[in-house]
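Workshop exercise sheet. Pairs work together: one partner reads the sequence aloud, the other fills in the structure field after running the prediction. Swap roles for the next sheet.
Pair: D.N. / O.F.
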Amino acid sequence: MRISTKGRYGLRAMFELARGYGKGPLLMSAIAERQGLSRKHLHALLTSLKSAGLVRSIRGPGGGFVLAKTPKEIKLSEVLSVLEGSLVLVDCVASRQACDRVSGCATHKVWRKLSETIEGVLDSVTLEDLAGQGVNGHSQLKSKKKTRKVSRCGKPAIRRQDGASRGQAKKGR
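Structure field:
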């Protein structure tokens, strides 16, 4: 699955609306400027989000766009489903009729589990979570999993008991 520009930009717009939640409507031009988006593209995204009931528009002086629900009630999976459609990796996960080999396919379970994991992560993150991540929404969400150090070549770095990596030991460092 590849999230398109539509999905990424839509999340950025929703991030701005979540940050401004409770402070009144935001002008489309303000959202576009803060997130570096074209107004034309943003208008199309906001129209889709409005049709799905995630955003409301307010006309007239002092008007603009607001979230239709609280940031805590809107999951990233909802936003991406509206803008991207199905979030599954391969068609056979959404519909077993998409492939006649599903019943004997060695990889079907992998694709299903991977799709479920991605959807689970997107279901677990709300706009409120995203809005709490920083001014531009670029800082990473806290993960419960430990990360591995990676060497320059992309392989996991293996540390010896003396603290040197495998590569440093060979070079005499």
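Discussion prompt: The longest helix spans residues 108-124. What would you look at next?
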